[in-house]
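I am writing to request your help with a piece of structural work I have in hand. What I wish to show you is a protein chain and, alongside it, a tokenised description of its three-dimensional fold. Could you please explain, in whatever detail you think fit, how the structure tokens follow from the sequence? You will find the record immediately after this paragraph.
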Amino acid sequence: MTQSIIDHISIPTTLRLMLQHPQLDPIALQLGPVAIHWYGLMYLLGFAAVWLLGRRRIRQGKTDFSLRELEDIIFYSVIGVVVGGRLGYALIYKPGYYLSHPIEIFYIWQGGMSFHGGLLGVILVLFWYARRQGRHFLEVGDFIAPMIPLGLAAGRWGNFINGELWGRPTSVPWGMVFPHVDNIARHPSQLYQMAFEGLLLFAFLWWYSGKPRKVGQVSGMFLVGYGVARFLVEFTREPDDFLGLLAGGLSMGQLLCLPMIAAGAFILWNAGRSSLPRRG
């Protein structure tokens, strides 16, 4: 579909750049037996961005959340991302393998995280946190959602550094060769995801949330925005070799985005009918 449209555009051979992935060392720092990976640092950078942006919103008086609440939300979100992301990958993408090797679910350093599993993990811990604080769950979501895409952008940059989650073969002029995969020019889909699911979605949500909204509208817009962006970019991303394309020629990531988009649309529709103003 989208990939076919892009790849059937006639590009003169002289304009094709044939970029090559830089094959950066995934280890940023080695301290004896301890290796600090760029991907892990990207997670830290993402959460740091959420903290800094949240502090800015609080200091500008654009929310009634306190700094302590922001720090609590980030702390619980870290737990939700790591536990949910790992369990989501194990149970959605490789259930047979991990059910046979359950101890390896804890081997996070071997890689394997699912965004949708991480999102579900964050939703569960924040639902628990909101109830404990006597807040509406969607209030918490509206506060934190605009800042999440910057964390996602950092994570996709980590994927690019690692040379993983590469794209499908392409003839576009910016096609990139990943030497550790093959010598075929491919879409740098990690950079597409960084741009669309990360930077552009952040810019839109930051603007959208800066105006008075009803409770749930910002959360719903995040779900729809991410779901649509991820669904479209997946047409350029190579599907997991152990899964391939599934129903309707869609990838697992695309199938998981469909209920996400539907949930976001429902939240937006329901919020539009509510008479409650957004509190923060």
